[in-house]
């Protein structure tokens, strides 16, 4: 089976895997937005006791936070080095997360309708076939369960802020982190979700304040945005 991943993308994250938990390193934005991601998901469904799958878990920032809230978390990724970092950090903190080197599509064939919640954050814009990930997420969640996505819109404003601003001017992210052509319009993501049997429930924007350099949830989905979906019965 052809993996839905590009070697260059996997290498990009493998090269900095040892810095996943450096609060002032390349992944600082993920640490900064993590409480907002948790807050937003918790508005829609209870995390404690839920069986949750984190697709594209990387070094485990979100996976660990959900497990610390009492969720039964499985984190999957195709970046082996990042998974090793995630596993080591979980051992250090004593948080139980089941990390697996497996694709979303393969796991969907093994464990359909197994999870109460599936999340895929900051990953869809890094894979060749994002619609395939959306379809796999829909197969992995039980009927009535929740699926959460986050990604970046594709427009001139997103190019200016997410690439020129974040990578070159503010240096929030390393240069080359994102490719504009891989950004995803909300209408496209909602269309893939509906085609996979998911009902889009809420879009939410992730906004960055230039003055205080802080992220916050808002209504502006022009750049970074979240989408909450439920699987239809």
The portion of residues forming beta strands comes to: 25-35%
Proportion of residues in helical segments: 25-40%
List segments where confidence is low: pLDDT < 50 over at least 5 consecutive residues. none
Distance between the termini: 29 Å
Overall pLDDT score: 94
Could you say which structural class the secondary elements and strand pairing correspond to?
Answer: alpha/beta
Largest sheet, in brief, is: 8 strands, mixed
Count of DSSP E strands? Answer: 8
> Would you give the CATH topology?
Rossmann fold
* CATH architecture descriptor name: 3-Layer(aba) Sandwich
CATH 4th-level superfamily: Vaccinia Virus protein VP39
Describe the strand arrangement of the main beta sheet, using strand numbers. Answer: 3-2-1-4-5-8-6-7
DSSP helix count?
8
Function: O-methyltransferase that catalyzes the 2 O-methylation steps in the ubiquinone biosynthetic pathway.
Binding site for S-adenosyl-L-methionine: 37, 56, 77, 121
Organism: Thiomonas delicata
Catalytic activity: a 3-(all-trans-polyprenyl)benzene-1,2-diol + S-adenosyl-L-methionine = a 2-methoxy-6-(all-trans-polyprenyl)phenol + S-adenosyl-L-homocysteine + H(+); a 3-demethylubiquinol + S-adenosyl-L-methionine = a ubiquinol + S-adenosyl-L-homocysteine + H(+)
């Amino acid at each position: 089976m052809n993996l839905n991943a590009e070697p260059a993308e996997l290498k990009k994250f493998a090269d900095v895997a040892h810095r996943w938990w450096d609060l002032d390193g390349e992944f600082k934005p993920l640490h900064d937005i993590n409480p907002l991601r948790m807050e937003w998901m918790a508005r829609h469904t209870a995390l404690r006791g839920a069986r949750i799958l984190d697709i594209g878990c990387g070094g485990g920032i979100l996976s660990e936070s959900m497990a610390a809230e009492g969720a039964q978390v499985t984190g999957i990724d195709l970046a082996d080095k990042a998974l090793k970092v995630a596993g080591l950090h979980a051992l250090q903190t004593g948080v139980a997360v089941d990390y697996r080197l497996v694709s979303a599509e393969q796991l969907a064939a093994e464990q359909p309708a197994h999870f109460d919640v599936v999340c895929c954050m900051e990953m869809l814009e890094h894979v060749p076939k994002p619609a395939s990930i959306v379809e796999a997420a829909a197969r992995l969640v039980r009927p009535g369960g929740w699926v959460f996505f986050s990604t970046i819109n594709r427009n001139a404003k997103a190019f200016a802020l997410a690439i020129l601003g974040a990578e070159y001017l503010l240096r929030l992210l390393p240069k080359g982190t994102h490719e504009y052509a891989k950004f995803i319009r909300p209408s496209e993501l909602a269309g893939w979700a509906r085609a996979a049997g998911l009902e889009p429930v809420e879009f939410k924007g992730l906004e960055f304040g230039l003055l205080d350099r802080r992220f916050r949830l808002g209504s502006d989905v022009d750049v970074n945005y979240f989408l909450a979906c439920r699987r239809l019965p």
